[in-house]
Amino acid sequence: MIELKNLIKTFGGDKIVNNVSTTFVKGKTNLIIGQSGSGKTVLLKCLLGLHIPDSGEIIYDGVSNKNMNDNSKTLLRREMGMVFQGSALFDSMTVIENVMFPLSMLSDKNDEEIRQKAEMAIKRVELDKAYDKLPSELSGGMQKRVAIARAIVMNPKYLFCDEPNSGLDPRTSIIIDKLIQEITKEFNITTIINSHDMNSVMEIGEKILFLVDGEKDWEGTNKEIFKTDNQSISDFVYSSKLLKKVRKFL
Amino acid sequence: MFYLNDIGKYFIMIKMSFFKPSKWKILKKLIFKEINDLIIESIPIVAILSFFIGAVISIQTAMNLSNPFLSKSLIGFATRQSVILEFAPTFMSIIMAGKVGSYITSSIGTMRVTEQIDALEVMGINPLNYLVFPKIIALLFYPFVITISMFVAIFGGFFAMTFAGVPSEAYISGIQMDFESYHIIYAYIKTFLFAIILATVPSYHGFYMTGGALEVGKASTLSFVWTSIIIIVVNFIITQLLLS
């Protein structure tokens, strides 16, 4: 579980994340949604420790970021898995090498154990026929699967995904979303997904945080989102003509 | 103020590249890869350029020594001095700023743009140690490249003079004339400093770049410009300190 208390992050005097308080639940897929420029990525980077908040607190399973020294921050990062928007796979490494990489760098396991663990992670994302392929030889969806395998290979307590289905077709997007949700349940991870994809909201939004101009505007579940009276989230959810038509039937 | 900030960041980057080291087994592989990419693969171009520039230096020297009272051995002497003191360490380093420097900036810059550096940070790996440290170690072998350049350039001069009809004995006695080993020490001190500049300045431009693919190209150009300027300025300072 990750708890945020009055989190503020500014850049050049502008409050990009403004006084956000919420709780991201363990074993559930938590979504941060909002328009482009609403502060989703900055908030995610604060959670990852890539940005240092100006004020407020982030509590990771009872441990506040304020009580962490550099060493405990490094150890915390080793409990985090991240799926980047562009997958961020290492170009010069094959699929298996990419997945083995965090284990080779950070664990004391021998080469054989590392390979076995990486193979298990790749099998879990159903990519066992692509072990020796380079990232450039894979489709966008396959690259995302490798990124997920690399993120889960260290058995993380927290999984962060920055727009995991950007650039993917709707069907592949849903497959990736479902895969992330299954992994979240299977490994009982606190998963936080940064998205503006409405399919993801409907499919896997077990806990949703809606940001407007860096501030928390609404939070709830994918069931509640369709019944809310909040105007700004309704405008966001029903922004397309298709969804406006769907709304009439709800 | 802007440049002071950059200078500070540059030295902090060098310091940080020695902290939180990755596993030796991984670093060893990276260092060997960098030695291959930065040193071994540079030898052919260095050898070709050195051979022809050595030849040109000797031809131009011969052209300026038309006085029959001047010994032909002076051609060998002047070629050796030009090559050892200036051409091999400095001129080659500027060429290497284009070849090696651009490669370093674009490879690290591409990793920055595609979030691979962020991925390393999220994993709890020190990206500076993983990316910059192996390059610094690999470029400690750079004096080896400059040694090859010196030999090949002097041989290029010999080759050109043989074609021009200058007696080979005169050229050989010229390259042995008034030899001062201190000049070699001076050349290698310069080379060592240039190696550190070649590894770190392009790494700085790649590591701290922002933007997209277009900016990677701009960062490579900027890296070449600054590496060349710094090499020339350091060359002047070292020469002033050691030779004046």
Describe this protein's structure.
The complex is a heterodimer of chains A (250) and B (244). Chain A has helices spanning 40-48, 70-77, 95-106, 111-124, 140-152, 170-187, 198-204, 231-237, 241-249; strands spanning 2-11, 14-24, 29-33, 55-60, 63-64, 80-83, 158-162, 190-195, 207-212, 215-220. Chain A is an alpha/beta fold. Chain A folds into two domains: 2-79 and 157-249, P-loop containing nucleotide triphosphate hydrolases (Rossmann fold); 89-155, no CATH class. In chain A, helix 6 links the parallel strand 7 (158-162) and strand 8. The relative contact order of chain A is 0.17. Chain B has 244 residues and is an all-alpha fold. Chain B has one domain. Helices cover 83% and strands 0% of the residues of chain B. Chain B is built from eleven helices and no strands. Chain B has helices at 2-16, 24-39, 43-64, 73-113, 116-122, 127-131, 133-138, 142-164, 168-176, 181-207, 213-243. The chains are: A alpha/beta (250), B mainly alpha (244). The interface between A and B is medium-sized, with 22 and 15 residues.
The helix-and-strand class of chain A reads alpha/beta
Instruction: Determine Rg of chain A (CA atoms, Å).
Output: 18 Å
- Radius of gyration computed on alpha carbons of chain B: 21 Å
Going by CATH, the architecture of the largest domain in chain A would be: 3-Layer(aba) Sandwich
Can you count the beta strands of chain B?
0
Cα separation of the termini of chain B? 33 Å
Tell me which protein chains meet in the greatest interface and how many residues each side has.
A-B, 22 and 15 residues
General shape of chain A? globular
Compressed to H and E, one letter per element, the order of chain B equals HHHHHHHHHHH
What would you call the quaternary organization?
Answer: heterodimer
Q: What is the first-to-last residue Cα distance of chain A?
A: 33 Å
Q: Shape of chain B from CA axes?
A: elongated
Overall tally of domains of chain A: 2
Low-confidence stretches of chain B: none
Number of strands of chain A: 10
Count, helices of chain B: 11
Spans of chain A with pLDDT under 50 lasting ≥5 residues? none
